[in-house]
Structures are given as structure tokens and as C-alpha cells.
Amino acid sequence: MTSAGSAKKVVVLDYGFGNVRSAERALARAGADVEITRDYDTAMNADGLLVPGVGAFAACMEGLRAARGDWIVGRRLSGGRPVMGICVGMQILFAHGVEHGVASEGLDEWPGTVEPLKADIVPHMGWNTVEAPADSELFRGLDADERYYFVHSYAVHDWSLETANPAMRAPRVTWATHGAPFVAAVENGALWATQFHPEKSGDAGAHLLKNWIGTL
Fold it and tell me: Model-level pTM greater than 0.90?
């Protein structure tokens, strides 16, 4: 437990895929008490878990499983403990990823397939705007024309998960466009994620991370 007034404890999951030092610095800037580790108990007991990711979908999944990250994410979410994924750390939350025609299994927290971007210029590298829902907590206080930093060649183009229970809040999905619309961020109960890199998105990214930390 974190005592009132103290910084929230956030673990950056170190499973070999992701710029953990950049994430650590950005989270510390946003006010968190940050630790980089793959230790199971430390990751389970933190107020928030951040899952970074760079490289290939299949390789990230292999590294995540080797570090028991799939167990950590699943157990945290089953207990309503916050998890946030970034870039490929977001993509592996979906059911499948297809790279070079080969399908790989993801964590299946959300239905959907990560596939090549439908654009003439790939990768999508640089700054882009997003279209966030009006009730977004992640983007609260940020201007609609704010820009975020993307580096990716794959994305999810179709979102199918909704809730039939009126007592439950439907997932809030943020979109961006590069050639065709794709999922840029998701807020779904304890599980949040961004396709872009908030740790590389300057003041806007810091504000966004502070919004997440404020919910922990």
C-alpha cells in the first residue's frame, strides 16, 4: 500500500524489449516512484505496472513469457491492478499479431489483430495528432490538436470489444490516422495502453503519464 501523500510506486517491466530508461525518466518526471525490474513480487505489488515494447511482436511475446510477464499482467488485471502498455507493449495485449505473413499469439486481453499499417509510407515515424473520446481520463487537460510521437509499422485497425452491461463503462478508444485510421490508445478499466511513445512526447507525454499515475 502507498501511504497518503507519498509517490505512487510504478514498476517498468524489464523483459528485454523496450527503452526502460526513457520510461523510467518520464515516469519519475511525472511524479512516480519508479523501479525497473522483472521481479515477480515487486511487479505484482506496485501501484502501477508499465509494459514497454520495441521490435517484433513475436519476439516481444517470447521475451515477456520468459520473464513471466504474461502471468504478471494477467494476475494484476484479474485483481483490478493497473497496467499500461506502450508501443509493442500495447500491441501484445491484443489476441494476435501478423508480421511477414506469420501469425503469433498475443496476451488476448483484447480481441483484434495487429497487422501492417495501411499506408504508402512505412514506418509511421514522427509526430501525429489523435482523436480521443470526450470522456477520456488519459487525455484529460490536453488540447485536441496536441501531437504525440509514433514509431511503428504495425497497428490495430478494427476495434470490436464493447460492453453489453450498462453498469460497466465501455472501453474508451483513441484513434490516429496514417494512411488509414488505427487504434492509438485504449482505456479499459485497469488496462490502459498507447501506440505512441508518451516518454518521447515532451510535455504532452508527461501530462498524459501524470494523468495515468493520478488514477493509481
Answer: yes
